[in-house]
Every structure is written in structure tokens, then in C-alpha cells.
Fold this sequence. Notes:
The protein is an alpha+beta fold.
Amino acid sequence: MRAYWYDNLPGDQRLPHDSGRSVPPSYLSSLGILHFNYPSLTSVNDLASSRNYTHRDEITISPEKMGDVYEEKVKTFFHEHLHEDEEIRYIVEGGGFFDVRGKGEDGGLDGDWIRIRLERFDLMIMPAGIYHRFTTDETNYTKAIRLFKDEPKWTPLNRGKETDENGYRKEYLKMRDGAEAVAAQ
Ligand SMILES: CSCCC(=O)C(=O)O
Ligand SMILES: [Fe+2]
């Protein structure tokens, strides 16, 4: 795992877009993001049961596996969205990028994109309500396990006026900025 500020330059979303400015783990945790490196599935299973995740599926995002819909899927995943549940992803093979919004400057709610590079054995937990997006990298191959509390269901809520007002979004901001207010004391 490596996190850095997205360079915001034009070009394929699958390129690294590395500005060269790293984002430290402490900043990611202040956004409510957790990361682990689990070379064995046993640890993934333990984490799943400790958080009451009883369902999972395995997704292979690649042109070979998905055929013609691959490019379309990759664009859908890259549309800025949030979920009303936390999102847990474990990379089994290949790699990919999750982009998440940093904090805005001067108390603004949303800042610039942070790119999080995930590789084999990386497990990431993103809190409900965080704006994010996903893309494969130039190798066009991500095999990941998605953990769910109930039946596997992926419901992205694309960013808009409605999601800005979403209760889970508001809860997330309270947690994020509340945590910061406490840390600053
Ligand atoms: C690597 S999982 C696919 C992307 C995804 O689940 C998401 O963007 O929410
Ligand atoms: Fe998502």
C-alpha cells in the first residue's frame, strides 16, 4: 500500500497519477480508513468474523474475465460515489487504485483526491459515507474479495446534491471532523 496526492493531470485513469507528495498513514486514519497486510486468508476470516461480516464474493476485474463490459465497468467504478455501509476489500491478485477525498482546506468539506495503491494481500476498510472511486492499473487486472454483512450487493450512490445530504454522509463528516477537533485540543 502506498498513498499519495493525485496529480490531477489529464491522462488515462489507470496511470499512477503520482504527484510525488505522499500521504502518511496517520492522515488516512484521520479519514477513518484502515489498512492491513494479510498474507494469509486466516487473518481475513478473523477480521470478517470480528466485524460480523458473514458474506463475501470474489471479483476479477479484467478484460479476459469481463469481456466487452470491462471498459464500461472500469468507468462505473471510477465515478465518484459513496456507500451506506463500510467497504472492505482484500486484494488477492494484481492491484488497483482507490481514490478517496482528503479534507478540504480552510474547513471546506471535501478536498483533493488521495490515491491509494493496493496490491496483493492488502486489505482496506473504508468508512460508510466517504466519497471515493476505484480503478484498475495499467495491467488491467484486479482480483479482490469483497466482504459483506448480508447478501453480496454493491450499491454505489453517485455524488450529487442528494448524497451531500445523505445521513450516512453527515455521520461520516461528524466522525471525521469531530475526531480532528478532539486531536487538535
Ligand atoms: C476492487 S472492488 C471494485 C470497486 C468497488 O467495489 C467500489 O468502488 O466500491
Ligand atoms: Fe465503492
